[in-house]
Design goal:
Blueprint: H1 9-12, H2 21-24, H3 26-40, H4 46-50, E1 56-62, H5 68-81, E2 87-93, H6 100-108, E3 116-120, E4 124-126, H7 130-140, E5 145-150, E6 167-172, E7 180-184, H8 188-191, H9 203-214, E8 218-228, H10 240-252, H11 258-262, E9 266-270
Parallel strand pairs: 1-2, 1-3, 5-8
Antiparallel strand pairs: 3-7, 4-8, 5-7, 6-8, 6-9
InterPro entries: Nucleotide-diphossugar_trans
Organism: Alterirhizorhabdus solaris
Protein name: Glycosyltransferase family 2 protein
């Protein structure tokens, strides 16, 4: 990969980037999260739970290599966040030298036996009752691909993915590839294999374009926010992630534009 590859316009355009309050003003970020968490306590989840019967869910954690104790801790922490309403199978894939998206492609082969595939990165902090609320929101609004919103004290890339006051779930034109991603199992054949990607950038843009073309419903759940604990390094000196993503997008030629992709979200369920 060389610098002769032109940065794709969808990556070069600054529209829609997030302001990371975690770095700029962490005290304010935590204050906003505390206030929004309190506001959520007034929301009655029971109608959404009634609209979301128990689902069969595979949870994939594409982790860095872990010790036996670390695997046990990660599995237990995830099991607590996943609650008990659903039939949840947790898979931790910490193979060395296998990219995140290759791990996702491998688990997709089993997707037909389940209702949902949920990919949770090992640097995502999940809240209490996370899965019950997240699945209730996406089922009640018939979403096909979804993510939880970022808390304000979280490392986020795009403003549209940061949590919104007054919203439980929004319809969007974009769902990012991590740190938490849910895909309805019926879509998996259309997304397999995932484009080969060492760094992972650009795959979610390809999917946003496919969703627009095929009428898939994308959305963001503000009622079950998560915190991304590790920052994304946009300033790697050799620019390999940017160049790899640009090569992918030049090859796929998505028709979606950045303002459509990262704008125009609307609240489906509010409080």
């Amino acid at each position: 990969m060389t610098d002769t590859i032109r940065p794709h316009p969808l990556l070069a355009d600054p529209f829609g980037l997030a302001t990371n309050l975690r770095d700029v003003d962490p005290v304010r970020a935590r204050t906003i999260d505390r206030d929004l968490d309190f506001a959520l306590t007034r929301f009655d989840w029971r109608p959404l739970f009634r609209a979301s019967p128990p689902q069969r869910i595979t949870v994939l954690i594409p982790a860095y290599p872990l010790s036996a104790d670390a695997r046990k801790t990660l599995h237990g922490r995830t099991r607590i966040a996943c609650g008990s309403r659903h039939d949840v199978r947790i898979v931790i894939d910490d193979r060395v030298g296998v990219s995140r998206w290759d791990k996702v492609t491998a688990i997709m082969a089993d997707g037909g036996k389940r209702d949902w595939l949920l990919v949770i990165d090992d640097d995502a902090a999940l809240g209490a009752q996370f899965l019950d609320r997240f699945v209730a929101a996406i089922m009640a609004t018939s979403l096909d691909i979804a993510q939880p919103a970022h808390r304000m004290h979280s490392y986020a890339s795009y403003a549209v993915t940061q949590r919104r006051s007054g919203s439980i779930v929004r319809r969007s034109h974009f769902v990012e590839g991590g740190p938490v991603l849910a895909i309805r199992a019926t879509l998996l054949p259309s997304l397999t294999p995932v484009p080969r990607s060492r760094w992972g950038w650009g795959v979610d843009i390809v999917w946003a374009d496919l969703a627009l073309r095929n009428g898939w419903r994308l959305g963001i759940v503000d009622g079950a926010p998560v915190e991304h604990l590790r920052p994304i390094n946009f300033d790697l000196p050799d620019r390999r992630p940017l160049l790899e993503a640009s090569a992918l997008l030049h090859a796929r030629q998505p028709a979606i534009d950045r303002k459509t992709m990262l704008g125009g979200d609307r609240i489906l369920v509010g409080y």
